[in-house]
Design goal:
With about 375 residues, the chain is of the alpha+beta class. It has two domains: about 250 residues, Zn peptidases (Aminopeptidase, 3-Layer(aba) Sandwich); about 90 residues, Peptidase M42, domain 2 (Elongation Factor Tu (Ef-tu), domain 3). The protein has ten helices and 18 strands. A hairpin with a 5-residue loop joins strand 10 and strand 11. Helix 1 crosses helix 5.
């Protein structure tokens, strides 16, 4: 385990990164603000590919193996689909939303010029609905965003809002009453991006027997699109996916079935419907966490997916693992994480990268049982 001084330094840096990244606008296809933070933090050896992924490559003491750290930059959001004559904005989802969570919530619309316009999601009030309609989950198509405009012309000309402009929740980064708990939008997946950046910064002075490529991927929430081109850009021998994973320590889920509990450490995911992680790689990581007394929990998921879906299938196959920071209420305006879970993930990844030499990585794909 790291000493108390190192722990404090890591925590301060983590809070700084999470605040900046969490507040940034980063709907799928409009990850510019997040990409800018990534670039500003790491500065050197940065490039982008044609999809918009941002890539930082750092060679250690050996050229191979090539280890990818991947974290998607986008968050679930919306896009302006139409503007009514009355100046109300109709919108379409970018990523998975549960309509129950949306009514009366504030959002930010990013214009082509870079302005952020605040609006609120509305619908026909329940006072004007029949009993049957009041008891139904309202469809997105029946909602709109009100930005306080008198008509369509004002929305377009004064506010500068156009069709295709992206929309994200308005929910500022907040330390809760217990400051170990953090509240913000988009911890899926700004926790992963923060981890990726912080790992690179810590590895500057630490020898590692490989070449590490840290990638902020785009458009994960709409079909892991950036992950496809990111793998092609780097050609990895192994991949570590860093994620904000859904917590399940809530009423309605039996305690014995909970695998994403806040405060119980980094989540090591073995599989989900989109990917079965490399078994030798996951066993290696589990042993490493136990050996170093890193708080961790193991997950077998029946739903969801990550960038692992695309990266594990690149070329002849890439041994891949997913490490997550559990987050309550992902894909809503307000998500909660516990900072010590983040720090456990950071410690595990830093140690892991120091161990991934050519022989170890090649051993993940030896299948002559």
């Amino acid at each position: 385990m790291v000493d108390s001084m190192k722990h404090g330094e890591r925590k301060r840096k983590a809070l700084q990164l999470l605040a900046k990244l969490g507040d940034a606008h980063g709907a799928p296809g409009c990850e510019d603000a997040v990409r800018r933070i990534f670039r500003d933090e790491l500065d050197e050896n940065i490039r982008t590919d044609r999809t918009g992924n941002i890539i930082c490559e750092k060679r250690g003491t050996r050229k191979h193996p090539r280890v990818m750290l991947a974290a998607h930059m986008d968050e679930v959001g919306f896009v302006v689909q139409n503007i009514t004559r009355a100046g109300l904005i109709k919108f379409a989802p970018l990523g998975g939303w549960w309509p129950h969570t949306l009514l009366a919530q504030r959002v930010r619309i990013r214009t082509r010029e870079g302005s952020e316009i605040i609006g609120v999601i509305g619908a026909k009030p329940p006072h004007f609905l029949g009993k049957g309609d009041r008891e139904q989950v309202l469809e997105l198509e029946k909602m709109f965003i009100d930005v306080g405009a008198k008509d369509e012309g004002e929305v377009r000309e004064l506010f500068g809002i156009r069709l295709g402009d992206t929309i994200v929740p308005e929910s500022a980064f907040t330390l809760m009453h217990n400051p170990e708990f953090l509240l913000c939008k988009a911890f899926d997946n700004r926790v992963g991006v923060a981890l990726a950046i912080q790992v690179v910064e810590e590895m500057v002075d630490i020898p590692h027997p490989n070449t590490v490529c840290t990638v902020g991927t785009v458009q994960e929430e709409v079909g892991v699109r950036g992950a496809h081109t990111a793998a092609f850009s780097f050609n990895p021998d192994a991949a570590i996916i860093l994620e904000g994973t859904p917590a399940d320590d809530i009423p309605g889920i039996p305690e014995e079935e909970r695998q994403g509990v806040l405060g119980k450490g980094v989540q090591i995911r073995l599989l989900d419907p989109s990917a079965i992680m490399n078994r030798r790689f996951t066993h290696y990581v589990l042993d490493l966490a136990q050996e170093n007394n890193i708080l961790h929990q193991v997950a077998v998921r029946k739903s969801g997916g990550t960038d692992a879906r695309a990266i594990q299938l690149y070329g002849q196959g890439v041994p891949t693992i997913v490490l997550g920071v559990p987050a309550r209420y992902i894909h809503t305006h307000n998500t909660i994480i516990q900072i010590n879970d983040y720090l456990a993930a950071l410690e595990l990844v830093v140690i892991l990268i120091q161990r991934l030499d050519k022989c170890t990585v090649e051993g993940f794909t030896v299948f002559d049982d």
